[in-house]
């Protein structure tokens, strides 16, 4: 460009400040509109829950107030009944001092009226409590109906919100697509205009370059003619100089011939000397050949011995390697069984613990219910439920959760991937599971399927014959188990390293936008995977699109799986060395449960009722027993009173008969002022 007279650097084009793109405006507007719609829908759905919570809070407040009133009424009734019973009991002492039947009859009538009044008051209280119970049942039925109506209303609002969201999403999606199409057309027009201007400028520049080239050709022709004349002059002078040199060389040739004859005589003499030395060398050579033959025979014998020893050592090495592999496999199998039995024992221990804990807590609940009934009904006290740490605890103490193996994680990913539909929910570490880090479930499933399909040669021949009897998912899990065993992948962290290595392979190779081999066009991995799952044709189109690579259009072909696995096996020890938290799962110690607090836990369950409460129960049992005896004596006295009332009625009838008949014997038998009972009437 400097030779042609152009600028060494092109002038920088000033870029005008671009306004915000139309597609970005539409996307921002759509995002705000959808967020506002989602917030309003959520508020409509949560309003029902807020109203239900408010009703439940109001009901609980009313229930607490009614409960306090009921307790006060029961306390008042118990106090009044106690006073009545003491009054009735005090009057029975006066009955023993009375000797006149009329006064005794009047006293008995008063006692009967007071007992009847006491019983009526008790029955009235029972009827009121039963009426409250019936009202509570009706209120419960109404509450259930109201909750059912709220649920139906909630479902209707949710369905309406879903329909509205789907409609809005479709509408906004169409607007975004239209905005992108319009923006694309504008960009095409602008670029086309710039291209035409650049072509015109290029044509003008080429024409100018052609004219400059013609001028330079003419100048070069003039320079060539000048050089031709100058070359002719130099040629003539050089010819004269070369002829002079030829004459000098002829003189030097004559001198060289004379020197040659002298040297020939010297060489003949040296030849005779060399022949004698050759004969001596022939004798020495024959001796050396015999010595070499002896050394060759010795070398052959040593080589034979070396081959035998190498063969023997090789066989011993193979047998030892086979024994080592067999013992290693047995050791791994024993450790796997040990872990399996440890997990099984832990599960059985947890089941037995839960069964005993459920039974103990059932007995504990019965004791607490008995304590509550005694406090509220017998003692009239307010009962508060004890708050202990062991009341809400469920399961064994000090249990630790084991990490999942690579095979278990692969089975879960395949099961989850087959049931999630078209969504790709990224599972993160903060969510509590695990551990696929930032890989989508569908991407992880595609990688595992590719590894299972392309690494079938690693499956044992005996196991390969049994795979035909299993389903597709089970076959994939069994193949992956064999592949993981061959690659020495045991934990979920190592499986995540394998998937991360797959996703970064194409980015490291630097092959963005690679189309499928043997296919006229590149297809997305989702279409290829769906065709394979739907039972499409037998063509191998298992490609994987890497969502985490620097090139979004990078693909992983099925033929590259073995190359990636080889590279991973080569770099796998380095990855393990970089991970400071990595430990071999075979050497991991099984978690040991801390049983130091088991005795304290069961002792706390057994002593949920404190010692003062137990003493109170004993004293209450003694008092209730005495009360029961008093009630028994009262029942006996009531029976005797009824008998006396019947006898008094019979005596009254007999007395009336005697008075009306005017029998003198009867009047003479009863003296005035005698109040004794006839012998025939029992007291």
TrEMBL record:
| Domain Dynein regulatory complex protein 1 C-terminal, first and last residues per copy | 600-659
Q: Where in the cell is it found?
A: Cytoplasm, Cytoskeleton, Flagellum axoneme
State if Coiled coil is listed as a keyword: yes
The record ties this protein, via Pfam families, to: NYD-SP28, NYD-SP28_assoc
Keyword set, alphabetical order = Cell projection, Cilium, Coiled coil, Flagellum
Q: What is its main location?
A: cytoplasm
The coiled-coil regions, if any, are 47-146, 232-266, 292-319
Q: Where do Basic and acidic residues bias regions lie?
A: 518-545
Dynein regulatory complex protein 1/2 N-terminal domain location, by residue? Answer: 50-151
Annotated spans, Disordered: 1-27, 510-552
Q: Which GO terms describe its cellular component?
A: axonemal dynein complex
Tell me if Zinc is a UniProt keyword of this record. Answer: no
What top-level branch of life does the organism fall under? Answer: Eukaryota
One GO process term, biological-process aspect: regulation of cilium movement
* Described purpose of this protein according to its UniProt entry: Component of the nexin-dynein regulatory complex (N-DRC) a key regulator of ciliary/flagellar motility which maintains the alignment and integrity of the distal axoneme and regulates microtubule sliding in motile axonemes. Plays a critical role in the assembly of N-DRC and also stabilizes the assembly of multiple inner dynein arms and radial spokes. Coassembles with CCDC65/DRC2 to form a central scaffold needed for assembly of the N-DRC and its attachment to the outer doublet microtubules.
Protein family (similarity comment): Belongs to the DRC1 family.
Could you identify this protein by its name?
Dynein regulatory complex protein 1
The gene designation is: Drc1
């Amino acid at each position: 460009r400097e030779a042609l007279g152009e600028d060494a650097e092109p002038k920088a084009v000033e870029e005008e400040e671009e306004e915000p793109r139309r597609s970005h405006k539409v996307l921002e507007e759509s995002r705000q509109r959808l967020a506002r719609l989602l917030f309003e829908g959520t508020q409509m759905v949560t309003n029902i829950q807020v109203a239900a919570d408010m009703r439940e809070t109001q009901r609980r407040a009313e229930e607490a107030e009614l409960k306090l009133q009921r307790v006060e009424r029961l306390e008042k009734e118990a106090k009044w009944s106690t006073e009545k019973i003491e009054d009735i009991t005090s009057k029975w002492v006066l009955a023993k001092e009375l000797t006149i039947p009329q006064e005794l009859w009047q006293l008995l009538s008063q006692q009967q009226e007071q007992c009847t009044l006491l019983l009526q008051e008790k029955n009235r209280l029972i009827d009121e409590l039963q009426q409250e119970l019936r009202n509570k049942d009706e209120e419960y039925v109404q509450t259930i109906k109201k909750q059912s109506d709220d649920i139906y209303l909630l479902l209707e609002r949710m369905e309406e919100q879903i329909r509205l969201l789907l409609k809005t999403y479709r509408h906004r999606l169409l607007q975004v697509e239209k905005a992108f199409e319009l923006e694309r057309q504008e960009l095409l027009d602008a670029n086309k205009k710039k291209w035409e201007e650049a072509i015109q400028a290029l044509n003008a520049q080429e024409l100018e370059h052609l004219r400059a080239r013609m001028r330079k050709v003419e100048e070069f022709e003039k320079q060539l003619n000048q050089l031709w004349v100058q070359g002719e002059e130099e040629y003539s002078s050089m010819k004269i100089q070369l002829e002079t040199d030829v004459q000098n060389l002829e003189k030097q040739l004559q001198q060289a011939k004379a020197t040659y004859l002298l040297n020939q005589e010297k060489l003949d003499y040296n030849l005779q000397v060399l022949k004698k030395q050759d004969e001596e060398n022939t004798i020495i050579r024959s001796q050396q050949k015999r010595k070499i033959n002896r050394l060759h025979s010795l070398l052959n014998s040593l080589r034979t011995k070396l081959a035998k020893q190498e063969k023997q050592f090789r066989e011993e090495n193979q047998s030892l390697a086979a024994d080592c592999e067999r013992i290693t496999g047995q050791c791994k199998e024993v450790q796997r069984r040990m872990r399996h039995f440890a997990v099984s024992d832990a599960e059985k221990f947890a089941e037995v613990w839960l069964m005993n804990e459920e039974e103990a807590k059932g007995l504990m609940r019965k004791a607490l219910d008995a304590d509550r009934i005694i406090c509220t009904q017998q003692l009239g006290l307010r009962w508060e439920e004890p708050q202990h740490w062991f009341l809400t605890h469920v399961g064994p103490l000090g249990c630790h959760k084991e990490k999942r193996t690579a095979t278990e994680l692969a089975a879960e990913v395949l099961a989850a991937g087959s049931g999630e539909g078209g969504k790709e929910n990224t599972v993160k570490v903060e969510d509590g599971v695990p551990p696929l880090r930032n890989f989508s479930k569908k991407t992880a499933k595609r990688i595992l399927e590719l590894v299972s399909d392309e690494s079938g040669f690693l499956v044992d021949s005996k196991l390969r014959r049994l795979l035909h009897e299993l389903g597709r998912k089970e076959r994939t899990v069994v193949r992956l188990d064999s592949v993981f065993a061959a690659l020495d992948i045991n934990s979920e962290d190592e499986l995540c390293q394998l998937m991360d290595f797959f996703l970064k392979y194409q980015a490291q190779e630097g092959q963005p936008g690679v189309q499928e081999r043997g296919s006229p066009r590149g297809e997305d991995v989702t279409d290829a995977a769906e065709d394979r799952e739907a039972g499409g044709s037998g063509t191998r189109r298992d490609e994987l699109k890497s969502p985490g690579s620097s090139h979004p259009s990078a693909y992983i072909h099925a033929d590259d799986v073995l190359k990636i696995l080889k590279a991973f096996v080569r770099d796998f020890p380095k990855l393990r060395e970089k991970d400071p938290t990595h430990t071999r799962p075979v050497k991991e110690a099984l978690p040991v449960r801390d049983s130091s607090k088991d005795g304290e836990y069961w002792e706390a369950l057994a002593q949920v009722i404190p010692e003062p409460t137990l003493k109170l129960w004993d004293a209450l049992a003694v008092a209730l027993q005495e009360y029961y005896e008093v009630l028994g004596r009262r029942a006996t006295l009531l029976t005797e009173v009824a008998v006396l009332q019947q006898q008094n009625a019979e005596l009254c009838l007999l007395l009336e008969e005697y008075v009306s008949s005017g029998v003198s014997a009867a009047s003479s038998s009863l003296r005035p002022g005698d109040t004794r009972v006839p012998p025939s009437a029992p007291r």
